[in-house]
UniProtKB/TrEMBL annotation:
<keyword id="KW-0963">Cytoplasm</keyword>
<keyword id="KW-0234">DNA repair</keyword>
<feature type="site" description="Substrate discrimination">
    <location>
        <position position="16"/>
    </location>
</feature>
<keyword id="KW-0548">Nucleotidyltransferase</keyword>
<dbReference type="InterPro" id="IPR050116">
    <property type="entry name" value="DNA_polymerase-Y"/>
</dbReference>
<dbReference type="InterPro" id="IPR024728">
    <property type="entry name" value="PolY_HhH_motif"/>
</dbReference>
<feature type="region of interest" description="Disordered">
    <location>
        <begin position="229"/>
        <end position="251"/>
    </location>
</feature>
<dbReference type="Pfam" id="PF11798">
    <property type="entry name" value="IMS_HHH"/>
</dbReference>
<keyword id="KW-0238">DNA-binding</keyword>
<comment type="similarity">
    <text>Belongs to the DNA polymerase type-Y family.</text>
</comment>
<comment type="function">
    <text>Poorly processive, error-prone DNA polymerase involved in untargeted mutagenesis. Copies undamaged DNA at stalled replication forks, which arise in vivo from mismatched or misaligned primer ends. These misaligned primers can be extended by PolIV. Exhibits no 3'-5' exonuclease (proofreading) activity. May be involved in translesional synthesis, in conjunction with the beta clamp from PolIII.</text>
</comment>
<keyword id="KW-0460">Magnesium</keyword>
<dbReference type="InterPro" id="IPR043502">
    <property type="entry name" value="DNA/RNA_pol_sf"/>
</dbReference>
<dbReference type="InterPro" id="IPR017961">
    <property type="entry name" value="DNA_pol_Y-fam_little_finger"/>
</dbReference>
<keyword id="KW-0227">DNA damage</keyword>
<feature type="domain" description="UmuC">
    <location>
        <begin position="7"/>
        <end position="183"/>
    </location>
</feature>
<dbReference type="Pfam" id="PF11799">
    <property type="entry name" value="IMS_C"/>
</dbReference>
Amino acid sequence: MRGEATVLHADLDAFFASVEQRDAPALRGRPVIVGGGVVLAASYEAKARGVRTAMGGRQARDLCPEAVVVPPRMEAYSAASKDVFAIFRDTSPLVEGLSIDEAFLEVGGLRRIAGTPEQVAVRLRARVLSEVGLPISVGVARTKFLAKVASAVSKPDGLLVVEPDREEAFLLPLPVERLWGVGAKTAAKLHGLGIRTVGELAELEAATAERLLGKAAGAHLHALARLRDPRPVEPTRRRSSIGSQRALGSRPRTPAELDLILTQLVDRLARRLREGDRVCRTVVLRLRFGDFEKATRSRTVLSASDRTAVLLGVARDLLVAALPEIEARGITLIGISLSQLGRAADITPELPINWGEEARLDTALDAVRERFGATSVSRATQLGRDTGWDAPLLPEHE
């Protein structure tokens, strides 16, 4: 017997653009694009005209010439996210943050004090709108996967409950793209095999799906298509990694441009480490090529560090090694993740300790940015660059 629909997936609608419309009443009801060179977010009015995240700015303006283009304000988005997550945690003790604008909540144990899961979801949406001023869509289902699909189907500003006896009727007719983990390449492969709906994938034998899609991916997607997702909502623990990335659009990028973006990403992430008294051992370079294939390159250092110069040196080595492939295939996204994080206090420093001017420079820059804002001081190579070059930092929900 299947359990109850007690998992909520709450997802803010067009988050960055919604914050801009909230803070500037003149933008409400109008198409809004966040980011000039590359679209970081688009309001639903702009999406209706075909504008999509990661699209080049010129293409977006051609599709929607009346759109209002605004620079990103990451501090405003981070503050709004914290306010929303405070409501999530006030709603349920079991909150699993997925990103800056979405989370799972398990509300099955709240029936006596808070009502049914649907009633909890209704109140949650009302609180986010009244207290933070943002629309949010919520899906309610028995599993995390179905709840996430339900919230996506309910957008914008919707609520959809998928009761256990309606799961097959809800999921099986949907396109395979709705499955968690089906990107453009996998969708194209499935379409080429004549598989366009979740139900058609579910009809395959598990072994056939694994042979067609690869053992791990095939098993995962086939299980989801057959409504198997045993993962519980796990309250977010202290993250084992932090990351930041930048969508680049489709135009060619020079090595100097890529190095500048890489420097910005590492600058911000290293400062984040120091703010949290943390260090890392592994630097991961994330790339998405012109054909939208993704790749990662990583290197682990012997001694954990929070020094900008150390981490930037590793990241630059990884980028230089990847340049021939980037030049051959093009690049549409670059990102950096810092993993194998630990507490700075738990690391035994190696002797001799001789950070010298480098440590003093990091400390001085951190102090200036803390007092006057993140953009108050920049490297000389960044002067004259518009704010669209700033990459969204993926926040830690702790």
